[in-house]
């Protein structure tokens, strides 16, 4: 993949310099260009309801000015991109690429599930559960990975919630703990 | 001189020194892990630094920024996998040296070159600061608007071959920044009647999604990789000193790094390219470049490590970030109500000097750490990639959720994570979105302020700096089209020079 970063003496320096910045199409280029163009068109179509032009205000100070500039630029750039993709030779592997994108959604769901569980069962228990479950899901079976996940979870909670005092609310179930020092400790540190 | 001494006084705070230590050592470790760059680490740590003093928080983030490239050279040299994207060029000469049995020499040269480039750039900037203090006040609203516009133009045309996508993404970034309640006329913009969109989309949520979550998703979805490598033995100190055989190359690399770092939207890749090309053209053995040339290695590593200090210049002097990392740091300033810009250089020069001295110290700390830690870092490289994905996903949660305990923020970040994954797979840049968001906001405010004092369109460029910036913007756009036409005439195939050298989205 890296061939030709520095080209031979037969190619001028300016071309070499331009070559540095070149990027290349990958399978799925057409799909992404189509999606971005459709997205830009939807934004353009909804613009009359989504931005407001105020009477008696100069163009540059209009609240609608920058959104309009941005959406028009998106339509123009993504439209030209789509045109370029349509007239370019198809690169094989589009379906596999789109399947790859879809496969990644599973981990977005894992992340959201983790987010939903934290306020209920607390930061430390949910982090322990999340890392262990995901480690299992990824196919690790050696106990060392589960031990590593547990140590990592405890370290993250202690460092961020304990020492750096980041704002993460105590879990609802902590309120079920008997009143006293341990409940206070759990609410502050765990 | 008084400001400089006062700056040293600011650094004497134990909290600042501790942050420096954590940032520099942490940055090396993070940089050494392929797949985790400074951007991922900074994105995750950003919200945690909001509770710290500005200098403490910035020192920690700068430590990560400045030291990650040291760590990134280790896997680049030993296993042909750059730890951070800006170490990609290091693989060209570093890995062949390892295959020749010169791993220690290559590592020493990389660390030495990084040190020379880093320190030279900081010294140059300390000397340059009084000049900047004089020039910065000449930047009024219209000049800052044009500088921000220049940043947008540069980030678009710098992605040659994908300028259309870069333009579209930069525009998307500008649009995201406008979503929510408009602050002057209080009208809703692209909120679709949803209350949760009224407060807008937070930059940190977007950054965490695009950099951290997307990287976690990539690592989790990709097949497992667990790189193996062998120990390095020998005298590292002597190997580091070997860089002084290449003083000229290291110094020129530092110079290119400073120049390219200052220009918004350009950065490490251009600096490395210029440095590498210069080294090759002036070398007695140009054919060895790409096959294990020590000169090539020094050229690459000295240039990339000179950029972080220089990239702070447009941020501190004008409040304009040139790339994603400084854009993230800008949010640290905003949170503490410290507005970077001309006033900072006029009124808080000691703060600026403190940042620069902190950067010198971090380079010293990192080199000392590297004397002993290379073999320790080799163990870290071996973390299986999917397990690393679990770790990044877990850490990303802290970054997003701790902002305002919002499930919606997390969902937005996850959405941007998937978008980032698609862009990475397509070898498309994510930086234009981030710069579009930040620079779009600056342009909106500054255009409104500038136009209030402008009668005719030509008035906008009547001042010398504004005129120069406008001419540069026009010339860059013309130059871009001239380049395209010339390229077309040469008739090179689309993939004639395919390479992954500029995968800036994997930083």
Structural class, from secondary structure content of chain B?
A: mainly alpha
Helix content of chain A: 55-70%
Radius of gyration of chain A: 26 Å
Contiguous runs where pLDDT drops below 50 for at least 5 residues of chain A: 1-15
- Terminal-residue CA separation of chain B: 37 Å
Number of strands of chain B: 2
The total tally of domains of chain A equals 2
Strand count, sense and barrel status of the largest sheet of chain A are: none
Number of separate structural domains of chain B: 2
Mean pLDDT score of chain A, rounded?
Answer: 84
Transmembrane segments (chain B): 15-33, 40-65, 107-133, 139-157, 164-181, 201-221, 315-339, 351-371, 383-400, 428-445, 465-485
Protein name (chain B): Tripartite tricarboxylate transporter permease
Domain DUF112 (chain B): 17-435
InterPro entries (chain B): DUF112_TM
Task: Lay out the secondary structure.
The complex is a heterodimer of chains A (190) and B (507).
Chain A: H1 13-21, H2 29-50, H3 65-87, H4 94-121, H5 123-137, H6 143-163, H7 181-189
Helix pairs in contact in A: 2-3, 4-5, 5-6
Chain B: H1 2-11, H2 14-32, H3 38-49, H4 54-79, H5 88-99, H6 103-135, H7 141-157, H8 163-178, E1 180-181, E2 188-189, H9 195-198, H10 203-221, H11 236-241, H12 247-262, H13 268-281, H14 294-318, H15 324-335, H16 342-347, H17 349-381, H18 385-404, H19 407-425, H20 431-451, H21 464-490
Antiparallel strand pairs in B: 1-2
């Amino acid at each position: 993949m890296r061939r030709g970063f520095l080209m031979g003496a037969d190619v001028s320096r300016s071309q070499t310099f331009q070559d540095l910045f070149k990027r290349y199409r990958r399978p799925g280029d057409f799909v992404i260009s189509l999606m971005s163009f459709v997205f830009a068109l939807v934004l353009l179509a909804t613009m009359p309801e989504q931005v407001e032009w105020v009477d008696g205000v100069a163009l540059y100070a209009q609240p609608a000015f920058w959104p309009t500039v941005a959406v028009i630029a998106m339509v123009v750039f993504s439209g030209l991109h789509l045109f370029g993709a349509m007239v370019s030779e198809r690169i094989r592997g589009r379906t596999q690429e789109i399947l790859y994108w879809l496969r990644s959604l599973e981990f977005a769901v894992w992340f959201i599930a983790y987010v939903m569980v934290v306020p209920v069962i607390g930061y430390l228990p949910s982090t322990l559960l999340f890392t262990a479950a995901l480690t299992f899901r990824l196919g690790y079976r050696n106990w060392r990975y589960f031990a590593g996940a547990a140590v990592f979870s405890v370290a993250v909670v202690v460092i961020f919630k304990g020492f750096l005092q980041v704002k993460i609310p105590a879990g609802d179930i902590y309120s079920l703990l008997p009143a006293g020092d341990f409940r206070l400790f759990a609410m502050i540190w765990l | 001189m008084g400001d400089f001494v006062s700056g040293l006084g600011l650094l004497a705070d134990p909290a600042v020194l501790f942050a420096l230590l954590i940032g520099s050592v942490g940055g090396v470790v993070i940089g050494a892990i392929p797949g985790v760059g400074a951007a991922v680490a900074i994105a995750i740590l950003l919200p945690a630094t909001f509770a710290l003093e500005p200098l403490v928080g910035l020192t920690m983030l700068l430590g990560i920024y400045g030291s990650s490239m040291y760590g990134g050279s280790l896997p680049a040299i030993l296993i042909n996998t750059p730890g951070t994207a800006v170490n990609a060029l290091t693989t060209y000469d570093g890995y062949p040296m390892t295959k020749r049995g010169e791993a220690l020499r290559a590592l020493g040269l990389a660390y030495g070159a990084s040190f020379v480039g880093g320190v030279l750039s900081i010294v140059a900037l300390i000397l340059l600061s009084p000049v900047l203090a004089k020039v910065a006040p000449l930047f009024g609203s219209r000049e800052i608007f044009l500088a921000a516009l220049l940043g947008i133009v540069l980030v678009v045309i710098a992605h040659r071959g994908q300028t259309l996508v870069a333009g579209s993404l930069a525009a998307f970034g500008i649009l995201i920044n406008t979503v929510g309640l408009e602050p002057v006329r209080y009208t809703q913009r692209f909120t679709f009647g949803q209350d949760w969109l009224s407060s807008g989309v937070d930059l940190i949520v977007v950054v965490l999604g695009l950099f951290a979550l997307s990287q976690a998703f990539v690592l989790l979805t990709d097949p497992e990789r667990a790189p193996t490598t062998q120990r390095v033995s020998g005298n590292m100190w002597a190997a580091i000193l070997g860089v002084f055989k290449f003083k000229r190359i290291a110094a020129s690399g530092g110079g290119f790094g400073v120049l390219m770092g200052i220009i918004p939207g350009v950065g490490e890749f251009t600096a490395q390219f210029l440095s590498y090309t210069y080294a090759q053209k002036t070398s007695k053995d140009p054919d060895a470049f790409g096959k294990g040339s020590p000169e090539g290695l020094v050229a690459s590593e000295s240039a990339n490590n000179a950029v972080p200090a220089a990239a702070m210049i447009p941020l501190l002097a004008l409040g304009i970030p040139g790339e994603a990392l400084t854009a993230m740091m800008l949010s640290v300033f905003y949170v503490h109500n410290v507005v970077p810009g001309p006033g900072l250089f006029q009124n808080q020069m000691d703060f600026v000097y403190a940042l620069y001295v902190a950067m010198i110290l971090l380079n010293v700390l990192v080199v000392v750490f590297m004397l002993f830690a290379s073999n320790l870092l080799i163990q870290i490289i071996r973390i299986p990639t999917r397990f690393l994905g679990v770790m990044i996903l877990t850490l990303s949660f802290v970054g997003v959720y701790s902002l305002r305990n919002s499930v919606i923020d997390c969902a937005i970040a996850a959405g941007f994570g998937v978008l980032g994954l698609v862009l990475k797979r397509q070898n498309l840049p994510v930086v234009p979105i981030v710069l579009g968001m930040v620079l779009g906001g600056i342009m909106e405010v500054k255009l409104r302020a500038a136009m209030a004092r402008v009668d005719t369109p030509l008035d906008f460029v009547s001042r010398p700096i504004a005129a120069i910036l406008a001419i540069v913007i026009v010339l860059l756009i013309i130059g871009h089209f001239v380049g395209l036409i010339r390229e077309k005439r040469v008739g090179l195939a689309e993939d004639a020079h395919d390479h992954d050298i500029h995968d800036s989205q994997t930083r």
